[in-house]
């Protein structure tokens, strides 16, 4: 299936009837908390199968995935995925490799958050997004608030950093 910028792949709390293999594109994953705060907590990219927490057993989705650009996704019926998991002895290794790749991505994101200055963190995020965005400018995909959440600073600081570039 093809999704365009702003279209939703899945909503927070969906029952998980499908898993999704991202063939191309990027998605932001946000979570709405009970106090009304919306937090961007993940970026999904080409090659991933999501939701990660449902690769072995089903669970309601933890957030809402929104396309940041034109994206192609294969919807995989969860029942078929779990049937293959039981029948295909290579499937657990496939899942382990998917989870390993995501863990390495998260380690990289944590490293980016612990780099010295906010400008250095912005530069690292910019480079990572440029590697995955196929020429789409990151400020066209994310708000200053969302960029701030990804680099651990306030929106005002992002605004100042972008003006200084």
Radius of gyration: 17 Å
Low-confidence stretches: none
Which overall shape is indicated by the principal axes computed on the Cα atoms?
globular
The counted number of beta strands is 8
User: Mean pLDDT, as a whole number?
Assistant: 93
Helix segment count? Answer: 6
Q: What proportion strand?
A: 15-25%
Please give a quick description of this structure.
The protein has about 160 residues and is α+β, with helices and mostly antiparallel strands. It has six helices and eight strands.
SSE topology sketch:
Layout: E1 2-3, E2 8-10, E3 18-24, E4 26-32, E5 38-45, E6 49-50, E7 64-67, E8 71-77, H1 78-87, H2 91-113, H3 118-132, H4 138-141, H5 144-151, H6 155-164
Antiparallel strand pairs: 1-8, 2-7, 3-6, 3-8, 4-5, 4-7
Helix pairs in contact: 5-6
Please explain how this structure is put together.
By secondary structure, this protein is α+β, with helices and mostly antiparallel strands. It is built from 6 helices and 8 strands, in the order ββββββββαααααα. The protein has a 4-stranded antiparallel β-sheet. Strand 4 (26-32) and strand 5 (38-45) form a beta hairpin. The longest helix has 23 residues, at 91-113. It starts with a strand and ends with a helix.
List keywords for this structure.
165 residues; alpha+beta; four-stranded antiparallel sheet; 42% helix
């Amino acid at each position: 299936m093809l999704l365009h910028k702003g279209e939703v792949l899945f909503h927070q709390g969906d029952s998980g009837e499908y898993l999704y293999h991202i063939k191309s594109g990027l998605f932001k994953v946000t979570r709405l908390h009970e106090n009304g705060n919306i937090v961007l907590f993940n970026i999904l990219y080409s090659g991933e199968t999501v939701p990660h927490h449902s690769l072995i057993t089903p669970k309601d989705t933890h957030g809402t995935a929104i396309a940041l650009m034109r994206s192609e996704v294969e919807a995989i019926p969860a029942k078929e995925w779990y049937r293959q998991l039981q029948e295909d002895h290579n499937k657990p290794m496939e899942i382990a490799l998917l989870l390993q790749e995501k863990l390495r991505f998260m380690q990289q994101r944590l490293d980016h958050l612990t780099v010295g200055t906010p400008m250095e963190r912005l530069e690292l995020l910019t480079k990572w997004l440029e590697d995955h965005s196929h020429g789409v400018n990151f400020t066209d995909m994310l708000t200053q608030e969302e960029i701030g959440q990804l680099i651990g600073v306030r929106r005002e600081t992002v605004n100042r950093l972008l003006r200084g570039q």
